[in-house]
Structures are given as C-alpha cells and as structure tokens.
C-alpha cells in the first residue's frame, strides 16, 4: 500500500510548480490588497462628518502621519537653508487640526481661493530664503514613509496645497477682525486704568443643594454619561468625571543665589584685576564718552530698515551693483528636466547666489570698488579687523566696578559648575533608563533589576536640593510652584526674538516625553532645575459606582443654581433706594448672608509688557474666581446701582453694588490722550481679543459645515 510520501514523489513536479505559482501570487498580488484593506483590522468607520463629506479612520490617521512627515521635511529644509531648525513644529500633529484644515480648505475653495504648485513653490522659497535647490528638496522627500507606503513629492505638494489654502482663508478672515479703532482702544484703556470699589454679597450655590429633590438613578447615570469623558477644569461651569493624567517625578534644583554667594567668596583679587584689564573697554566704558570713531566703525544707518552696515561694505555693495553685468539668457534658463517624472519644484523659485558669477574670472580685490578715500573705507576696515587697544582713560576705575566684576566671575563659575553637575547626572539617569529597558527585554533572565538614581543622595552629595512628586496632575504641579514655574529657552525662527519659552509643564507632561529622560529648565531668578518622570498614569474614565457620590454632588450644584440666583435677585431688589447691601442682609431673615467691601480693583491687571506678559483678568482679594461676566457687570454700573451675576465656574452668585470709580472719567480721558501713553499693553489686549474673535469664527465655520465627531478626537 502506497504511503503519502510515495504519492508526493509520484506528483512532485506538479506540486512544486503549483507551490511556486502560489508563492508568486502571494508576493505580487497580496500586498496591494493588504494595503487597500483597513489598517484597523475591521470596517473603516467614519470618524467625523460634515455636509457633503466626511473622513474615515484610515484616511484621518494617514493625514495625521503626513503632518509628522511634513514637519520633519520643513525642519530639514530649514536646516538645508543654513538656519537652525531647533525643535520647530510648524503644523499641529493632531486630529482636530487636520479636520479643521479640511473644512477651511473647503471654505477657501467656495470663496475662490485655489493654491496651485506655484503657490507651494512660493511658500517653500520663502521658507528656505531661496537657498535650497529643487533636487535638494526632492532628496529630502526621498525615502520617507508613513506606514507601509512611501511618501512622494506629489503627496507633499497635495498636503501643502490643502494646508496653504486653509491658511490663506485664516489670513483673510483674521484681516477682517484686525484693527483697533479709537473707541476700542478707549474701552481697553478703561479696563486697564479705571478701578472700582464694590460691595458684594456672595450667595454660595452649594448651600442650596440640600433643597433640590433627590435625583433618580437614571438621571444620575445620564448626567455621568454626559460628562464622563470631560476632564475637571477649575473655572469651567460644567463638571468633569474623567480622571486626569497624573505623573510622578523627581527634581533637583541648583539655587542660584546660594551658589553665587559661595562662589563670590572664592573669587581672588588677581582674577578680578585680570578680568577688568581684558574687558574694561567693552564693559566699563564711561557712557558719556563713546569710543573715538565708534560711529564710523559701526556703520551708517540703512535708510529703509534701520540696520547698519560698515562704511567699506556699503561702498563695495554700491560699486558692485553698478558694475554687475545682467545675467545672460542661458544663465536665466532652467536646466533640462531629468528623464522620468517631471518635478513640481520650479528652479525659478530658488535663488542661487553663486550662479550669476559662474564661469567668470574672479575679480581682483579692488576691482569691484573705486580706490578708497583716505580716512574712509580702508581705515574703517582696519578698525573693524584690528583689536581695540586697551584704553587708558574713558573707563570706570576698578574700585568702582570691583563688585560687578566679582559677581560676573562668580556667576560664570556657578554656570560651569552646574553645567558639569547636570551633564553627569543626566548621563547617570539616561544610563539607568537604558539598563532598565534592557532588563525588561530580558525579563526571563536572572539579572538583578537596576536600581534607580536616588535623588536625595545626589542632592546631598552635590550640594543641591531635591524634591519628589507622586501622582500629580498638571494643575497640581503648577499650583505647587517652584519647578512648575520654570521654563526652557527654545529656538523659534518665527518668533520676533528668535526664541520662545517652552514651559516646564509642556515639556514634562508632553505625551512624547518618556520616563527617565531629564529635562533642564530655569526660572526667572536664575535657579536651574533638572527633572525626570518616574511614572506616568494615563487619563481614564472611572466606573460610575466608584464616583457616584461626586456625580450626585455635581448634579445638585447644577440644579441649585436657579435657587441661588433667585435669592441674589431678592437681595439686589431690596437694595434699591440707596440702601447698602450690609443693611439689606442684616435685616434679611432666613439664609445667612454676609456683605463685604472689595477693591479698588481694575478689570484687567496691567501685566508686564517688558517681560512679554500681557494684561490678564484681575483677581481682587475676597472674590472667588471672578470671570469676564463679573467684570462686565461691575464696570457697566453707575455708583449706587446693583447687579447679579455668577462667578466663572458658577459656584457663587454675587450681588454687586458699585460704591465708586477712580479716577474720574475726565481725568482718565486726559491720561488717554497723553502722547506718552504706553500703547503696548493696549495692543496686547486688542491682539488677544482678536484671537478670541478669530477662534469664535473658526467655531462658526465648524457649525456651518455641520461638523460632527463620531468619537472624541485625539490631540497630541
């Protein structure tokens, strides 16, 4: 009887041929079908819909991934142009912005705004300062992938066309909201400068919660379902039952003042004298006696920009402009296209400074400019290139600046010390992270689990201070102050200053920040911090049974708001006829209420324009979270009149009686018309209000489009 192997030997050629054919089919045919299939392993559901359209899960994830690719491409293009990209993230990499961009692009198209390849090329030319050639840009795209699919130049152009169309729509809309006429400026000025004294009676909403009938279980469940995916926010009128994200972290702080005081004791007289001799002309020149020839060496002001150029450079530039030959037709012509698919990049969009002189003999040093006049270009050039000799006069004497020199030397020594300490500690913490990762990968081995760095031991050994935080929300961390107030300076080419402050909370609580990766920050007094996460607990929706008591309490507060407002309005009505609120509540039976006098306070706190802090809503002592509605009610009153309004989270209903304003309106108007008026703070408020109006416009676009999310969108 023949066995199965005998049958295989008999038909082996036929079977092997069949296997080979199936293998080829699997290799060439199966992958495209797999790529066409939904990546979620099931149906590809709609994530968001709008009128005449929508977006499915796979397409949304593809567009989010494309944002990541575009950000890296734009950073690389910036680097190729000779600028430092730092950690620039041009495009938000989250689902909300992707969908909003699609809606704005549709709005732009409806208004006749169309972005072609020329518009994309113009954007890239501006982005790279015309310093990157088309083939370089194509090389930056080559090899990039999202998921299994390669990124093509056509993908990049299509994505940028949509983004630029949406951005153009934003610009047009924001232009319609910009501008601050005199009436608006006067209103902002009053909010900054006018102060009020008020009498208030707070009616606490929760004190009426017991008067609300008990809710049914179904009502509580419906209330919980409505807010279970909302995070609690201090100033929100709506509750939030989702447990927020919490992290644990350790930190070290180098106290600048203490280290500086110690370092100053170690500075010697010889170090002070050497530093003074080397830097006295640069740092300690008498301000009333500028250096001879300083104006000539520094340059003359450029007429249009206010910038300066050395005199010799100005003359050379002018002469070169007169003698420069026009580019030939051949030089202006684009190079022949490469064999294959034509590139959407245009050479005309990218300036190559060396192209105009290619093939020409190099000019002699003096050929581009006429002979320098005595005492002008040559002398200024020598002055610019020759080290300035130490001055024997015109500088502050050493004894007058000795303390300043000591402080400078001590500060430099402290910085060097902290740099070395933090570098060593960061290396130790990062080394532990690698060992821990290796140990987890070899979980079946008998190796001992690595011990984490002990922050207290490090602090005691290095003369630093240590801190621990366990399961803190971002709000907890900020309220605790200290390290929560620190920041990191990050390069930002789009900022007028060239850099921006990256706040500690954003750095540490960022979703991409792994455990045991140190973050170095500093605060305004100069203290320096080193922080690393030791645990990270994601936000989650709790079970209803676990938070039932909190749900009922929140439900009762919401239901009690009308009762509190009724009582507040009764008090306000009783204050008619010139009675004070103190007299009204003293004679009122029933609910125990108290009146208090608050102020003077302005609507907006002035802030600090020099530090970039815009005016913010003031926080008068004795009031609980007053919001815009409270301030609007106060500053719309006449002295002696009353109003009723809630605080921002609607936990307190205030009865307000205006006592007085200061200064008088006529005095305030004279101050407003003063030519020396600080306009920066007014402009800061106007800009913020324009941004709020713009955000309202965006919300209106979403409503008009009928946007509906089928699941909560994910943010990064």
Structural class: alpha+beta
List low-confidence stretches: 31-41, 289-341, 347-392
Biggest sheet character: 4 strands, antiparallel
Q: Using DSSP, what is the number of strands?
A: 19
Would you tell me the overall average pLDDT?
Answer: 77
Q: Report the portion of residues in β strands.
A: 5-15%
| Percent in helix | 40-55%
Quick take:
With 716 residues, the chain is an alpha+beta fold. Helix content is 47%, strand content 14%. Among the domains are: 46-177, no CATH class; 195-241 and 547-662, no CATH class; 246-257 and 414-537, Chitinase A, domain 3, CATH 3.10.50.
Kindly describe this structure.
- Helix 8 crosses helix 25 and helix 11 crosses helix 17 (398-441).
- The radius of gyration is 35 Å and the shape is globular.
- Among the domains are: 46-177, no CATH class; 195-241 and 547-662, no CATH class; 246-257 and 414-537, Roll (Chitinase A, domain 3).
- The strands form seven sheets. It has a four-stranded antiparallel sheet. A four-stranded antiparallel sheet has the order 9-6-13-12. A three-stranded antiparallel sheet has the order 2-1-19.
- It is of the alpha+beta class and 716 residues long.
- A hairpin with a 7-residue loop joins strand 10 and strand 11.
């Amino acid at each position: 009887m023949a066995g199965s192997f005998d049958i295989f030997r008999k038909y082996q050629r036929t079977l092997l041929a069949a296997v080979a054919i199936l293998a080829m089919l699997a290799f060439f045919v199966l992958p495209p079908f797999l790529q066409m299939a939904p990546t979620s392993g099931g149906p590809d559901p709609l994530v968001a819909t709008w009128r005449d359209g929508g977006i499915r899960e796979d397409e949304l994830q593809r567009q989010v991934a494309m944002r990541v690719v575009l950000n890296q491409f734009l950073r690389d293009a910036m680097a190729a142009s000779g600028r430092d990209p730092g950690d620039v993230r041009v495009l938000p990499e989250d689902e909300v912005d992707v969908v909003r961009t699609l809606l704005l692009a549709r709005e732009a198209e409806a208004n006749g705004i169309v972005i072609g390849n020329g518009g994309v090329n113009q954007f890239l030319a501006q982005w790279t300062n015309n310093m990157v050639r088309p083939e370089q840009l194509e090389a930056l795209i080559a090899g990039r992938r999202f998921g299994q699919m390669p990124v093509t130049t056509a993908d990049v152009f299509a994505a940028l066309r949509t983004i630029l169309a949406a951005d153009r729509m934003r610009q047009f809309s924001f232009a319609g909201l910009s501008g601050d006429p005199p009436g608006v400026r006067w209103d902002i000025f009053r909010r900054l400068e006018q102060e009020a004294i008020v009498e208030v009676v707070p009616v606490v909403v929760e004190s009426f919660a017991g008067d609300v009938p008990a809710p049914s279980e179904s009502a509580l469940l419906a209330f919980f379902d409505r807010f279970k995916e909302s995070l609690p926010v201090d100033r929100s009128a709506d509750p939030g039952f989702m447990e927020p994200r919490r992290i644990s972290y350790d930190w070290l702080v180098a106290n600048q003042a203490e280290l500086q005081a110690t370092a100053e004791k170690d500075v010697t007289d010889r170090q002070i004298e050497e530093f003074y001799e080397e830097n006295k002309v640069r740092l300690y020149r008498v301000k009333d006696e500028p250096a001879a020839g300083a104006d000539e060496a520094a340059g003359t002001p450029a007429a249009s920009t206010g910038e300066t150029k050395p005199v010799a450079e100005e003359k050379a530039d002018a002469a070169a402009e007169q003698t420069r030959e026009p580019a030939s037709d051949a030089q202006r012509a684009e190079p022949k296209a490469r064999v294959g698919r034509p590139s959407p990049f245009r050479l005309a969009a990218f300036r190559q400074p060396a192209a105009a002189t290619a093939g020409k003999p190099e000019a002699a040093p003096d050929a581009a400019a006429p002979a320098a006049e005595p005492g002008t270009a040559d002398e200024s050039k020598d002055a610019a290139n020759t080290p300035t000799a130490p001055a024997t006069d015109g500088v502050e004497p050493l004894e007058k600046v000795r303390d300043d020199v000591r402080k400078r030397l001590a500060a430099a020594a402290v910085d060097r010390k902290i740099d070395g300490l933090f570098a060593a500690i960061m290396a130790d913490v990062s080394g532990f992270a690698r060992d821990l990762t290796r140990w987890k990968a070899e979980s079946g081995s008998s190796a001992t689990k690595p011990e984490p760095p002990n922050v207290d031991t490090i602090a005691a050994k290095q003369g630093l201070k240590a801190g621990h935080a366990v399961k803190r929300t971002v709000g907890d961390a900020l309220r605790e102050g200290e390290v929560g107030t620190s920041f990191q300076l990050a390069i930002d080419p789009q900022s007028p200053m060239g850099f921006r402050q990256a706040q500690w909370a954003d750095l540490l609580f960022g979703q991409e920040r792994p455990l045991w990766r140190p973050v170095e920050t500093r605060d305004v007094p100069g203290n320096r911090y080193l922080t690393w996460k030791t645990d990270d607990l994601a936000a989650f929706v709790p079970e209803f049974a676990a938070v039932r008591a909190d749900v009922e309490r929140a439900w009762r507060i919401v239901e009690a708001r009308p009762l509190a407002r009724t009582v507040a309005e009764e008090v306000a009505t009783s204050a008619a006829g010139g009675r004070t609120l103190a007299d009204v509540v003293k004679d009122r039976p029933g609910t125990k209420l108290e009146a208090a006098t608050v102020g003077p306070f302005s609507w907006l706190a002035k802030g600090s324009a020099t530090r970039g802090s815009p005016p913010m809503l003031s926080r008068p002592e004795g009031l609980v979270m007053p919001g815009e509605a409270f301030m609007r009610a106060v500053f719309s009153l006449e002295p002696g009149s009353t109003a009723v309004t809630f605080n921002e989270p609607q936990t307190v209903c205030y009865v307000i009686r205006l006592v007085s304003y200061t200064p008088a309106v006529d005095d305030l108007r004279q101050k407003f018309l003063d030519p020396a008026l600080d306009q920066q703070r007014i402009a800061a408020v106007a800009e913020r209000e324009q941004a709020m109006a713009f955000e309202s416009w965006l919300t209106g676009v979403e409503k008009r489009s009928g946007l509906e999310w089928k699941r909560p969108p994910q943010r990064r």
